[in-house]
Design a protein that fits this description.
Order of helices and strands: EEEHEEHEH
Distance between the termini: 67 Å
Strand content: 15-25%
Number of helices: 3
Number of strands: 6
Subcellular location: Mitochondrion outer membrane
CATH superfamily of the largest domain: PDZ domain
Keywords: Membrane, Mitochondrion, Mitochondrion outer membrane, Transmembrane, Transmembrane helix
Protein name: Synaptojanin-2-binding protein
Helix content: 25-40%
Radius of gyration: 21 Å
Largest sheet: 6 strands, antiparallel
Oligomer: single chain
CATH class of the largest domain: Mainly Beta
Shape: elongated
Structural class: alpha+beta
CATH topology of the largest domain: Pdz3 Domain
GO molecular function: protein kinase binding
Length: 154
Amino acid sequence: MNGSAHRTPKVEEFTLKRGPAGLGFNIVGGVDQQYIMNDSGIYVAKIKENGAAALDGRLQEGDKILAINGNKLDNLSHGAAVELFRSAGEEVHLCVQQRPLLQNGPTSSRADGESSSALGTWTLLSVVVLAAATVGFMVYKRLQLNPRGPRGPF
């Protein structure tokens, strides 16, 4: 094997103790606000610096949260998931599927405390490519319908 990063994402369970600023992370996703196409799961969008999740170190940006205190997050709206986190109590038991690694070798950490989500980068890149292809197709079709260019009152 060549050390390819394609491997089954690991599922991990652990408990976070709520800090003065809460659990210390933001979430995205839900049936009404899908973060990943055809996946209504709840994902970690941002780990807040010096928050409970950052200090614990096990939760990472891009991780999918499968359950909170035994409540599965399948088929929930974003608001319903947020409410589960808000009402979860001081100690919150999480079941998390770690984000898949999309590169060879170890992941890198930035010295300034920021981290990047390869998943978010690929999603943004896909949207940009799709938008460019759509605009190109529209221009092509317009030229087919009117090969001599636009006509106006000039």
